[in-house]
Amino acid sequence: MDQDRRDAAAWAKEWYIRQRNRRVLIVLGVLAAIALIGYLVNFTIVHVERTTFKSVEDMRKAMQGRYAIERDYEDIVIEGDEITLTYLAFTHYNRDYAERYGYNYDEQDSVYEDHIVKWDYRNGVIKTQWMGDMIVDKDGNIRRGDNYYGTFFKTDKPRPDPIDPSTLKTPEGSINADISAEEEEAFEEREESLESTEDAAEDAPEDVVTEGEDDVQA
Fold first, then answer.
1. Cα separation of 203 and 2, whole Å?
2. Coil, helix or strand for 131?
3. How confident is the model over 83-103, as pLDDT tens digits?
């Protein structure tokens, strides 16, 4: 009887160990599947939505120059390992805006400078000290992080010339000016981007951020 009891206890222990090992294997299998799916998703994002390069030097060479959101009067300029983000003053460049809402002599460009700390050529990412990641899309343009609606397009065009306020018909603005829903949305997107950049600049250590305003009319 004692032997039967011992055999039953041994069998129960062996069954418990087998069940525990099975659960461990199932958990490990699920984790491996999740990791594989994550890898495949990342691989798809990188190789379908981004431009990758053969080396750091290939990426650095390809990404030099000016990238712009022309409608929002924003641009990014990459020179060597330095990157400059500029929000051009609407009132100094957009003639229609200045005619309708008035020319603001005091408004200035907002200029932010940063340093590129890593050219992640395998993943198509430009890593900066405080502006965040710049994603190189499949067409070689730049997105700030995952902002698909704020794409800076590669361009050989120079910045537009500022308006001569003496050529404006209504430099004081028009009392009948009305803003469209599309224009309001564009202005709001620009303001959100500018505020986000200002916040990032404020949070960055003072020794790594250069922030300034250039009065283009001076």
1. 73
2. coil
3. 999 999 989 999 988 988 889
Q: Which two tokens stand for residue 100?
A: 């309708």
In the chain, alpha helices (H) = 2-49, 56-62, 90-93, 95-101, 181-203
Place of tokens 């055999």: 7
For residue 145, what are its two tokens? 């992080």
- Stated pTM of the model: 0.73
SS3 assignment, position 34: helix
The string of DSSP letters for 38-59 reads HHHHHHHHHHHHB---SSHHHH
Contact 163, 93 (CB under 8 A): yes
Tokens of 178: 């009305």
Burial 136-163 (b: 16+ CB within 10 A, else e): bbeeebbbbeeeeebebbbeeeebeeeb
The tally of CA atoms less than 13 A away on the side-chain side of residue 131 is: 29
Distance of CA 133 to the CA centre of its chain: 6
Among positive and negative, which fits the CA dihedral 175, 181, 182, 184? Answer: positive
| Count of beta carbons in the 10 Å neighbourhood of residue 112 | 22
For residue range 125-177, list pLDDT tens digits in order: 999 999 999 999 999 999 998 676 689 999 999 999 999 999 998 888 876 66
Identify the residue whose tokens are 């990157």.
83
